[in-house]
Every structure is written in structure tokens, then in C-alpha cells.
């Protein structure tokens, strides 16, 4: 924290404190967020992490208080995983600079990706992205959306072999981002996983998009690949969960698995799948970070309850 002025830090801490005043219910008795082991290792990750919202890309007009508050909220409520945005426009996202100013980069599990075309372009991008995060070795490097896999997968394998990354893998975003992104098939991802056995994959999954559980999660469990979930709040036609449930109360039986919000409804459903290591979510609001983090506390639904959750949400 030495390179962040005290006024900025205290202002961000006050934002977290105000948001933390929300009622927390029965989960307060649990001391820490649930964790999951990275397959084949003794390392555990908290099941809820933070994605790359807009305040982590460029400095917000209000300054550093908001992005610092988002990080503080995650960490104070048990989070440690941060998925960082891979794109430069033209400079790297400011989150790397911010983490180094806060001296937090070595306390967090950080991801980065190669999102560009071309072998040499990919190598240059990766070196610059990792330097921006200031962590050596970086925790996880992925090829973003299967882009130029014939170039980039050998690059990140060499990166790991050189001791510059602890884990490697691939991400697969929503339809339209890549010719391989198709919720209905995942053929390219399945073939790749069987051949290369990556350390991690990052894939979309929600109640409205169950194909990941049908095709990819059983394979990941079989071969020992860690799974980070994105797009936890997506619904039909790429819509959002919160528009669907606006004005609707949680069912009373949600209390049976310590669920306090619709965000937690989705996150607890996802993290109750045993093949999933963690979920990352994006939000620019401190209170939503805290709400999401609380989804990692308390009881989880069992299989009959998961079916009940599916039926209820799909009926809305």
C-alpha cells in the first residue's frame, strides 16, 4: 500500500465498509469462503473470484477509489482469484499498475491471456501482459478463445517450461467471439482437452446454458483439468439473469442452502458442481462484489435441490 496515498486507500475502505453493512444472515457463522483444490495439486482456490470490469481497464473519472474498493471487497470477503482483461487499447489495463502500487500481486491468483493473432505478436503480447501484472511466475496463462492455437499453445507451453507461468490453459467465450465458440457442441475444446490435458479451462456455464455440464465438465473431471466458469448470469438469447428476476422474490426454500440473492442462487448452483474449481464475475459495484463473494459461504444445494433450482428459474 506504500505507493497508494492514504486518503485514496481510506476512501476505498469506507466504500467497502458501507457496502458490507448489508444483512448477512446465517452465513456469518462460517469463517472463510469455501475453496476447491486445483486437480493434481495441494493448492486450493476460493470458489468465487473477480473478473475484469471496466474500472480495471482505464482510470475511472473519479480516480482510484473505486477499483481499489472492488479489490478490497473481494479480498475482505475471502476472494483471491482475479481474471484480468487481455486486451490492450493500446496500453495494458490499469489493474496491473494498481496491484503493484498496492503490493498485492503476490497475494492473489492472477490470470492473463493471449488474445492476438500471430506467433511473434502473441509472444510480445504475453511478455508485456505479464510484466504489467508484476508477478513472476504469473499464476495462469491462457490462449483466449482458441485464437491461433497452432502458434500460441506451444508458446505458453514453453512459457511454463521456462518457469514463467505456474499453470496454462485455454478460454472459450460466448458465441460470436470465435469460430469455436458454440454452446451446442464444444467439439474443438473436447478434442483439445483429450490431446493436451491443459491445467485449466475457462468456459461459460449457467442454468440457462447447461451444455458445459453435459459435455465438458465430465471430461475435465476425468482428466484432472481445473475449471473456471464465466458468464454465470447469462440467460436465453444472451440476456441477463437480473432482468429476468427483477421484482421477483427468491423462493423460500433458497434458505435451505443459505442463499440471500439471485446472484448467489446462480453462483451456488454452479459451484455445487464438483468438477468446477471457481467462478469469476464482473461488476463495477462494491455491493455486488460482496454479494457475489458471499455466494461462496454457507451450504450448497444437493443434486435434488439443483434440479429444483433449474425448474424454478427456467419457469420464470
Describe the protein's architecture and organization.
The protein contains eleven helices and ten strands. By secondary structure, it is of the alpha/beta class. The chain has a single domain, classed as Alpha-Beta Barrel (TIM Barrel). α1 crosses α2 and α2 runs parallel beside α10. The N and C termini lie far apart (46 Å).
Task: Determine the structural class based on helices, strands and strand pairing.
Answer: alpha/beta
The whole-number mean of residue pLDDT values reads 89
CATH class equals: Alpha Beta
Q: Gap between N and C termini, in Å? A: 46 Å
CATH architecture: Alpha-Beta Barrel
Radius of gyration: 19 Å
Core attributes:
316 residues, alpha/beta, TIM Barrel, 8-stranded parallel beta sheet, two-stranded antiparallel sheet, 10 strands, 38% helix, globular
SSE topology sketch:
Blueprint: H1 6-19, E1 35-37, E2 44-46, E3 48-50, H2 65-76, E4 81-83, H3 95-102, E5 109-114, H4 119-133, E6 138-144, H5 149-161, E7 165-171, H6 187-196, E8 200-204, H7 211-223, E9 226-230, H8 241-245, H9 262-271, E10 278-281, H10 286-294, H11 303-314
Parallel strand pairs: 3-10, 4-5, 5-6, 6-7, 7-8, 8-9, 9-10
Antiparallel strand pairs: 1-2
Helix pairs in contact: 1-2, 2-10, 3-4, 6-7
Give me a quick take on this structure.
The chain is an alpha/beta fold and 316 residues long. It is built from eleven helices and ten strands.
Amino acid at each position: 500500500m506504500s505507493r497508494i496515498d492514504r486518503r485514496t486507500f481510506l476512501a476505498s475502505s469506507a466504500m467497502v465498509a458501507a457496502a458490507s453493512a448489508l444483512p448477512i444472515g446465517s452465513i456469518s457463522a462460517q469463517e472463510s469462503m469455501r475453496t476447491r483444490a486445483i486437480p493434481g495439486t495441494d493448492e486450493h482456490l476460493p470458489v468465487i473470484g473477480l473478473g475484469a470490469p471496466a474500472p480495471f481497464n482505464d482510470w475511472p473519472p473519479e480516480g482510484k477509489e473505486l477499483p481499489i474498493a472492488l479489490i478490497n471487497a473481494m479480498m475482505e470477503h475471502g476472494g483471491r482469484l482475479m481474471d484480468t482483461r487481455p486486451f490492450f487499447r493500446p496500453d495494458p489495463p490499469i489493474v496491473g499498475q494498481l496491484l503493484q502500487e498496492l503490493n498485492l500481486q503476490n497475494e492473489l491468483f492472477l490470470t492473463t491471456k493471449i488474445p492476438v493473432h500471430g506467433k511473434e505478436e502473441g509472444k510480445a503480447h504475453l511478455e508485456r501482459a505479464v510484466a504489467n501484472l508484476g508477478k513472476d511466475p504469473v499464476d495462469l496463462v491462457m490462449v483466449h478463445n482458441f485464437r491461433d492455437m497452432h502458434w500460441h499453445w506451444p508458446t505458453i507451453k514453453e512459457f511454463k517450461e521456462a518457469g514463467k507461468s505456474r499453470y496454462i490453459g485455454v478460454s472459450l467465450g460466448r458465441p460470436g467471439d470465435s469460430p469455436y465458440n458454440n454452446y451446442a457442441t464444444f467439439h474443438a475444446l473436447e478434442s483439445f482437452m483429450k490431446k493436451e490435458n491443459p491445467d485449466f479451462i475457462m468456459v461459460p456455464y449457467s442454468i440457462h446454458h447447461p451444455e458445459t455440464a453435459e459435455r465438458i465438465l465430465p471430461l475435465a473431471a476425468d482428466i484432472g483439468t481445473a475449471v473456471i466458469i464465466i458468464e454465470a448470469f447469462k440467460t436465453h438469447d444472451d440476456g441477463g439473469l437480473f432482468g429476468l428476476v427483477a421484482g421477483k422474490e427468491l423462493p423460500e426454500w433458497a434458505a435451505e442452502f443459505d442463499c440471500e440473492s439471485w446472484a448467489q442462487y446462480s453462483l451456488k448452483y454452479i459451484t455445487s458442481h464438483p468438477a468446477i474449481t471457481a467462478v469469476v464475475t464482473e461488476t463495477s459495484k462494491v455491493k455486488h462484489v460482496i454479494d457475489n463473494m458471499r455466494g461462496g459461504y454457507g451450504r450448497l444445494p444437493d443434486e435434488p435441490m439443483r434440479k429444483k433450482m433449474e425448474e424454478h428459474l427456467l419457469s420464470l
